[in-house]
Design goal:
Layout (H helix, E strand, L loop, with lengths): L1 H19 L1 H4 L4 E9 L4 H12 L3 E7 L6 H4 L4 E5 L12 H22 L5 E6 L5 H12 L2 E6 L3 H9 L4 H16 L2 E4 L2 H11 L4 E2 L13 H15 L8 E6 L9 H16 L7 E6 L5 H10 L5 E4 L8 H7 L2 E4 L11 H8 L4 E4 L15 E3 L2 H12 L6 H20 L3 H8 L7
Parallel strand pairs: 1-2, 1-4, 2-3, 4-5, 5-6, 6-7, 8-9, 8-11, 9-10, 11-12, 12-13
Helix pairs in contact: 1-5, 1-6, 7-8, 10-13, 11-15
């Protein structure tokens, strides 16, 4: 009942705005970028905001606080950030379903207030997932203010929810209905892969443009001098020492259900066993895993039980400026992203490719749109394959001529691919900007 009253008041206020204020405050150049998550950990939505600002738009970003946003956001006069208030933490006090209901009501009220509080937007772009309550609220706002409603499909909300709730759960079915109903009614839809574009049209008759993720300028190779300087900083600032004789791998994660880190841990165990055998002349291995998320404590408990002599795992939280440098300094990247829908691509690999870092990536349906096995990187299907790739890559390190040639081949093909493709902003201008010039 409270939600219905709140929604009715929200609609009434929006009607008043539309009737009396709409033409006075709309300029055609006001855009709202909405992410129902940590703004600083939403690179694609931040890139949208930066591109809008570069093209002369005034940008309001709505999202949650946490990680600091990019400097191009925080220091941009055309961009304003409006932070949502995190919902109360009630998991230890109430059943899971009631916690979810309270969270949705809280988010509905808070998001509605912020949409009303900021100046009126001519266009609103929101990411999906999540779908609840974001998509319906944004659609109502855009309908009553005559704003352009755009959905950026990063994945399917219902497929992510199904990982923990099961496909037939009420909330999963509700999320699917919301995605279908409002996705079809959006003025524009964009998505991250051709596979998702085809799936949206085939299943729901939703026509979307593909806007591939691209690395920004800060993701690039660095010189040996810069690498040595960063490794020195890594030791001083993060207490992580990378000896010259050790192999250095990096993986980034949001520690969620769509990344099974037991695959990497089991592969590292096999690598440790091979080091103990001493037959392959393998170096000690430093594995740095960056990121925050709900399953981090679970995996850290497993990692803490390991008594490895030749493999060391570090899990620092890096500043924005240090993340590209650690990718450019590593010997190999590892990606465990599996995609709940099988239709999205891991942005972490996009960033690694920008730094010319070869990757071992877990294989799934549309990965070949980005990673091509034995062409620009390696693809594995289980922990055994990953362990073999790690041993092959680091055998006789750092003097393995086969590995050196393979690395040069991968880096050359990454470079050729990026030359043939546009950078983020050029790609954005080609696929997004025309929507706002209609």
């Amino acid at each position: 009942m409270f939600t219905l009253i709140l929604l009715s008041l929200f609609l009434l206020l929006l009607f008043i705005i539309r009737k009396f204020c709409l033409r006075k405050f709309k300029s055609g150049k006001n855009v709202c970028v909405l992410v129902l998550g940590d703004v600083g950990r939403s690179p694609r939505m931040q890139y949208h905001a930066i591109s809008f600002a570069r093209e002369g738009f005034n940008v309001d970003i709505i999202g949650y606080p946490g990680s600091p946003p990019l400097k191009e956001i925080s220091e941009n006069a055309r961009v304003r950030i409006h932070y949502l208030r995190p919902p109360p933490e009630l998991r230890d006090k109430l059943p899971r379903f009631f916690c979810y209901v309270i969270k949705v009501v809280w988010q509905t009220a808070d998001l509605s207030w912020l949409l009303l509080h900021k100046h009126i937007s001519d266009s609103l772009i929101t990411q999906n997932p999540p779908a609840i309550p974001t998509i319906p609220i944004c659609w109502f706002y855009c309908t009553l203010t005559e704003a352009r409603f755009i959905i950026d499909w990063h994945n399917y909300a219902h497929s992510i929810m199904a990982l923990s709730l099961g496909k037939n759960h009420f909330l999963v079915r509700l999320s699917r209905i919301i995605e279908t109903t409002f996705g079809y009614r959006a003025k524009n839809n964009i998505c991250v892969t051709k596979a998702m574009q085809q799936d949206l049209e085939k299943k729901w008759s939703i026509r979307a443009k593909v806007l591939y993720d691209r690395p920004t300028d800060k993701f690039h190779p660095i010189t040996l001098t810069d690498r040595n300087e960063f490794l020195h900083k890594l030791a001083e600032k993060y207490n992580i020492s990378i000896p010259f004789s050790s192999g250095f791998i990096v993986s980034s994660t949001s520690w969620t259900e769509d990344e099974d880190f037991s695959i990497l841990l089991n592969a590292l165990q096999e690598y440790e066993d091979a080091c103990e055998d001493g037959e392959l002349n393998l170096p000690d291995l430093i594995c740095i895993i960056t990121g925050k998320g709900p399953l981090k404590d679970f995996y850290m408990a497993i990692i803490d039980l390991k008594k490895w002599k030749h493999v060391e795992i570090k899990t620092p939280w890096l500043e924005n400026e240090d993340y590209p440098k650690i990718l450019a300094s590593a010997d190999l990247g590892v990606c465990l992203h599996t995609s709940s829908s099988g239709l999205d691509l891991p942005m972490k690999v996009v960033d690694m490719f920008g730094c010319r870092l070869p990757v071992c990536a877990y294989n799934f349906n549309c990965l070949s749109e980005l990673v091509k096995h034995n062409d620009n990187s390696l693809v594995f299907s289980d922990e055994k394959e990953l362990a073999e790739q790690l041993k092959m890559w680091f055998q006789d390190f750092p003097d393995n001529e086969t590995q050196r040639q393979l690395r040069e081949k991968f880096q050359k093909n990454m470079f050729i691919s990026q030359q043939n493709d546009n950078d983020w902003h050029s790609n954005w201008k080609l696929n997004m900007l025309p929507c706002f010039q209609e």
